[in-house]
UniProtKB/TrEMBL annotation:
Gene3D superfamilies: TolB, C-terminal domain. It comes from the Bacteria. It holds the Pfam family PD40. The lineage of its organism: Bacteria, Bacillati, Actinomycetota, Actinomycetes, Propionibacteriales. Belongs to the TolB family. This is Tol biopolymer transport system component.
């Protein structure tokens, strides 16, 4: 079931300018719990809420999903802006034309216990990166996978029992960035597509999730949870947004009440000047 707001809670959409440090409130709602902002190439923001997808204008303008089942907060815009790829409640990924038209299922049947959670699209628009979740007995296994955006054979990129999530292509398409518990609690990593070489990007006391590389490759923005946090829960205090620069410096950007839904998917503006996020104050 889609998440809903608690009594007295609001959804607040912000845009942060990484040069000036300004955090600008763009839209707020006490009715719809919206999540996971993306940008269209023209600068329009889109979010999900109540199983639907919306443009953010004067209000929330529904984007027709073309018969696709109710969606969650894993959605990614194609580089040309014509298509948005969404993860639906049936566990599959669909392609939805922004301008209207029927949705198309991209993913294959890998058994009733397998779910596809979309996080990235390659810079050339040809390949999607997703997290494949499956149950092996009572063990919950998540790995990084890819699949052609047009449909086709899946490729398993990681093959281990560590909790992996947030798989997103870098701007050159050579690396997939993700968070993983392979070093203990969740930290940020990247894996080279060509040879599966893995590099660790963060190593600190906090629980770090969802690395989002800027389109120009200058930095990575990510969500950082308090030490000891399990998973990426909703509605907790001291969730921080951090910036990891190319030279390894970590900058604190803001602290907020939120977590799940705050910044699950690629959320940079096309010119790399800003990113969008959601808070859920009570």
């Amino acid at each position: 079931m889609p998440r809903t707001l608690r009594p007295g809670q609001r959804s607040e959409l912000y845009v942060a300018d990484v040069t000036t440090g300004e955090h600008r409130l763009v839209y707020t709602s006490a009715d719809v719990l919206f999540e996971a902002p993306n940008w269209l190439p023209d600068g329009t923001l889109i979010v999900n809420g109540n199983g639907l997808l919306f443009r953010v204008a004067d209000g929330l303008e529904e984007i027709e999903l073309g018969g696709v089942p109710a969606i969650n907060n894993d959605h990614v815009v194609a580089p040309d802006g014509r298509t948005v790829y969404v993860s639906a409640g049936d566990g599959h990924i669909y392609a939805v034309p922004i301008g209207g038209g029927p949705g198309r299922r991209v993913t294959n049947d890998r058994g009733p216990g397998f779910h596809h959670y979309l996080h990235g699209v390659s810079p050339d628009g040809t390949t999607l990166a997703y997290i494949g979740l499956e149950w092996v007995g009572e063990r919950r296994i998540t790995n990084v996978w890819t699949i052609p955006a047009a449909g086709g054979a899946d490729v398993q990129v990681t093959d281990d029992e560590f909790a992996d999530d947030g798989s997103e292509y870098g701007p050159d398409g050579d690396w997939i960035y993700f968070n993983s518990e392979r070093a203990g609690q969740a930290q940020l990593f990247r894996i080279r597509v060509a040879d599966r070489h893995v590099e660790q990007l963060t190593d600190d006391e906090r629980v770090n999730w969802f690395p989002h590389p800027a389109p120009d490759g200058s930095c990575i923005v990510y969500v950082s949870f308090p030490p000891g946090t399990e998973g990426h829960p909703a509605d907790i205090d001291d969730v921080r947004l951090r910036l990891l620069t190319r030279d390894g410096e970590i900058r604190e950007l803001t602290s907020l009440f939120g977590g799940q839904g705050t910044m699950n998917v690629p959320s940079w503006s096309p010119d790399s000047s800003s990113f969008a996020y959601v808070t859920y104050p009570l």
